[in-house]
Amino acid sequence: MVSALNEDRLFPTDPEQRLIARRLYEAIKDRPIISPHGHVPIDWFAEDKHFKNPTDLFITPDHYVTRIMHGHSVPFSELGVGQKNFTEEQSRNAFRLLGKYWYAYAGTPMRYWMEDSLSNVFGINKPLNEDTADSIYDELNELLASDDFTTRKLVKRFNIGFISTTDDPTDDLVLHDKVRADANFPARLAPCFRPDRYLAVDRVDWAQLCDQLGESAGVNTATYEGFVEAMRRRRLFFKQHGAVAADYGVDPSLDEVNWSGDTTRLSDDVAIRLYTKARSGSLTSDEARKLHAHLLNDQAKLAQDDGLVMTLHPGVMRNHYRKQLVNYGPDCGADCPMPADWAHWLRPMLNEYGENPDFHLVAFTMDETAYSRELAPMAAYYPALYIGAPWWFLDAPEPILRYYEDVVPYAGFAKLSGFIDDTRALCSIPARHDMNRRLTARYISGLVADHRLSYEEGEQIAIRSVDGQPSDVFKL
Amino acid sequence: MVSALNEDRLFPTDPEQRLIARRLYEAIKDRPIISPHGHVPIDWFAEDKHFKNPTDLFITPDHYVTRIMHGHSVPFSELGVGQKNFTEEQSRNAFRLLGKYWYAYAGTPMRYWMEDSLSNVFGINKPLNEDTADSIYDELNELLASDDFTTRKLVKRFNIGFISTTDDPTDDLVLHDKVRADANFPARLAPCFRPDRYLAVDRVDWAQLCDQLGESAGVNTATYEGFVEAMRRRRLFFKQHGAVAADYGVDPSLDEVNWSGDTTRLSDDVAIRLYTKARSGSLTSDEARKLHAHLLNDQAKLAQDDGLVMTLHPGVMRNHYRKQLVNYGPDCGADCPMPADWAHWLRPMLNEYGENPDFHLVAFTMDETAYSRELAPMAAYYPALYIGAPWWFLDAPEPILRYYEDVVPYAGFAKLSGFIDDTRALCSIPARHDMNRRLTARYISGLVADHRLSYEEGEQIAIRSVDGQPSDVFKL
Amino acid sequence: MVSALNEDRLFPTDPEQRLIARRLYEAIKDRPIISPHGHVPIDWFAEDKHFKNPTDLFITPDHYVTRIMHGHSVPFSELGVGQKNFTEEQSRNAFRLLGKYWYAYAGTPMRYWMEDSLSNVFGINKPLNEDTADSIYDELNELLASDDFTTRKLVKRFNIGFISTTDDPTDDLVLHDKVRADANFPARLAPCFRPDRYLAVDRVDWAQLCDQLGESAGVNTATYEGFVEAMRRRRLFFKQHGAVAADYGVDPSLDEVNWSGDTTRLSDDVAIRLYTKARSGSLTSDEARKLHAHLLNDQAKLAQDDGLVMTLHPGVMRNHYRKQLVNYGPDCGADCPMPADWAHWLRPMLNEYGENPDFHLVAFTMDETAYSRELAPMAAYYPALYIGAPWWFLDAPEPILRYYEDVVPYAGFAKLSGFIDDTRALCSIPARHDMNRRLTARYISGLVADHRLSYEEGEQIAIRSVDGQPSDVFKL
Fold it and tell me: Which CA distances in Å does A281 have to A200, A201, A205, A206, A252?
């Protein structure tokens, strides 16, 4: 399918450097996609799903997209967020709103990804705006109805070699087993262990959550020992069912304590005492923070045995806008990063496990200032630590280039995580990886043009950065 | 008047991108100047003022200029700061000092603005230095004496469409009325409501200030209710006399408590109790901070009714050098920014008023790290929030380009404030706006050269950024 | 000796700008090296030392190099760190490891410096890797055995005009005197007063350290007055023996309190009381921090009389990995920067001494965010304050360019420290200074290409930045 997008997009403007970037990009552009962390729902892979309509594909499930329109006073409800029965007419209207506010996305990666998807996935090259929204909606609807645009067909077309979902520790992973057993599913699929809410020790429903965790593990979690054992068993269960990693967003409790990334261990006695208090819902905020830090450290401790890669991304104030949480629930765009303090957060964990080469800790910061100040210095030194690719609010061309400029000088390329798309927007996956490959080529072309690297070594590094590196970091 | 300055200054060096930047600049360079926030004294507009001499125009009133010479041990007094009877000879000597230390300004925007003003406003193109200072001083004196260089003539020549002063809430605005009533005044003029000292609840003279506020409003401010009513009335008075905005620098009390940008509301009972304590001068520092945060929130609350735009710029340690405050008073260059924590500061205010599209909150940070970490994520999400242009210590070419690179990827262009000159240096206004237009063209030319935007859309965005955007944000 | 390195390395890629950068570089590349702060051991200068072998030269003493291999699980012991009897075979193996992990250094300054040293100092131009490591080791060994590669021959060849060591306050400086008395020593040599451990008031061995300080000064340090007098005398002693500066890394106590850069003075009574408590080892952590801040302020106070330049670099968490401290001691790569708060740290010191032009305070930050937010605004204003060049984790091309872009707009060039190599790796000194000269040319070429500076003024600034500026700042 012919793309109307310029082949040199995101490359440097200097002609000499652009030639180098083109060559580097040529060497990596067609490599299979490795996506070690993402949020595509498992049922999209389990059945060969048809998308209901363009809004269901591009707008409603993607808070990157919806939050921008909300910033221009479009209610989330009009975009289908949290709507049980969102009609075809409402969906069409939501897409018209996207056309109307498309100018507001100028310069953003959401726009870049969608234009790339429209052109390269659907062959639609006319610019989106209020006038074209309807006809593009119709074209997309027609294509989505065809058998060429089902979820599995897309996974195949996107040349995805490895993809991970994100799952609750109590999940039975039956759907994952089904997909993994299916020789026709084109990619290697993995679940990801995401226990955040079971670590949110001051949630009003926390004791109940622990009981559910215990049931799924066949262990009584009335005691701290039981809780740890349940975690151990469920992690193992995930690993046995294909998981390579466990993910920690250190989400807040519903009571809006915001956990930091602190990983300080408590003595066993204190841990046991606070766990029991937590069960009875009588922790102080300070005790809750201390217990949370300890349980986070426990997860790293468990990883010493089961080898699951630990991905950690604290430092975000979740549900900054409380009405959003009440009306639409968490994870729909109302979060805001905060200043990070990685040197203190990780010190206890790295002092205990930082020299174990089989323990892989991938740190994703939402505060760019930590890249050169804390993450590069620590990742360069500690065998266990890798610097997570810029994601969420940082996966645009400018911050991706800043990331390389901030971390490579003191950590090199070999302590980076490789690209992570972190998305629930299936059709944006190739666009996101392609953007990253173009920018990786752009950054490396600068080192070659600067005569800091030979072209040959630059090409080796570029290739390694899209497959060898993520494969090693995530133990694929 | 022919300028000796290079027409391509501040444009990208890459020939291809430079052509794009030139074209974009051509489309915006002659648009009227919109200046929604500034510090030119009202009497400069009320009477058609002649400047006393070049020092009175370029040096004494501009702490951007004086602080650099102070950094090389030139006493402020020798530059006319705080001097009642500064003689012609002293003025001439101050200008010689500027010539002597001109090398120290190399690479700074102060130098760029002054060279631009000398060339484009006064047709003086010879380089300033110790040897030329005298003759330039003479040339300028001659021009300033002529009728072509009075304040109003300059406003007309500068093609200023809208300009705002900054004023005390008790100001009778008689001079503003006079100018606004004068058909000959070339620009739309507005006062700006700046109540900082009336919110500095631990000033030794605070109760007295409140009484003055009460008098000007015809309300007894002995009670908290009276204080709020007085604020309500004075804001309305300002609006009726042309104001579009209220400005908050959260200046410190004279006792050097440094307020943060915290906006947490208190319960009415607590607010009333602390207000009464404040009247009697018996607040603890902690109580003072809490009451200040509440009163700041109150200003946002009042804005829900009167619709004045709220411009907020906390995060600066005022009077970092105390001797400066004692010898010369505040606002003459002895301030220093501090780390910002916008996510926490604005959370209470945005949770209450953030979804009201008629409430416009423009946040100016002095800590660049907040742009991509907090301001872009919040402004993209909250309809009420706009990201203030880089000003004060951040209005140089480098930080202006960083600003675009930091905020556009996640907030787009439509949640930016538009350029703010924030200056008391009248002759620098066209130079400041021209610098910003050149850099806006430079940044957008990068997006076009990157093939992220079509030239046509880039031009629309550039045009919108110099008039439509500030007009909408400041409700002009 | 012909270098195989590209002559345009690190220059901008744009052809027009590259020509400007080349011309600027030509004007400064051969100027004598001024190195006001470094860590080369004095005995390397005292005797005309032969390096034992390439590992002893390039690996073991340089934690920049060793920490990267440690990050890939190479034990420090295998690199010779802390090894009493490291055999020739072990040295050779360590060099093989460097070849094996050379890919991990791609994009780092360590690699740039070593490639520059190998080519320009030793004429070795073949790429280092696992296969070439042995032969390069042999070639180097042969050269190191010859009389052309002794320490003094190298100092002469490197065209070093001034160089400083870093020394303990109790050092008798006999070796320095010997070198300074030797007409054959090619460079001006200076010791540097580094009293950190005598200010670490909660070290278990602190009282004992003070006694040693007292002995060396001939003063009883049982009292605070005695301590201050001892410091006064030792500073004077250092000055009389050639020192121009005193250096403060505010290292932590062995008990891992991390001092901040706080400089708050105590009342004399409190200082005396806390000093006495410190002698008896009974300070609380809070008291220790307060006394440390006071003693740091005292050092600035003493500088008012003796005029030693104060170089200050707080904000690093020393010994982040405690096992490293236990197994190998401090200063071997296990440190990590933290967020800085310079505006508060320096306020007390600058309020007392900031307007004294004879007091020179050079602030080195490990947190880049402080450059534009705090250091540039303060250095522009305070005559005493200079902004230290980026060093340690910040001396790579990218952060060096960011440094200029962050500080020049508001502090200009005349409040910068000039380049500091801060190294114990003798052979990397010319490479480090050359890298900085190339990047200085690159940054200034941008200002010239932007038409913000004439080429002529740009060249004057470039020349001044490599000799006049450091000579003035460090009073050479």
Answer: 12, 8, 9, 8, 16
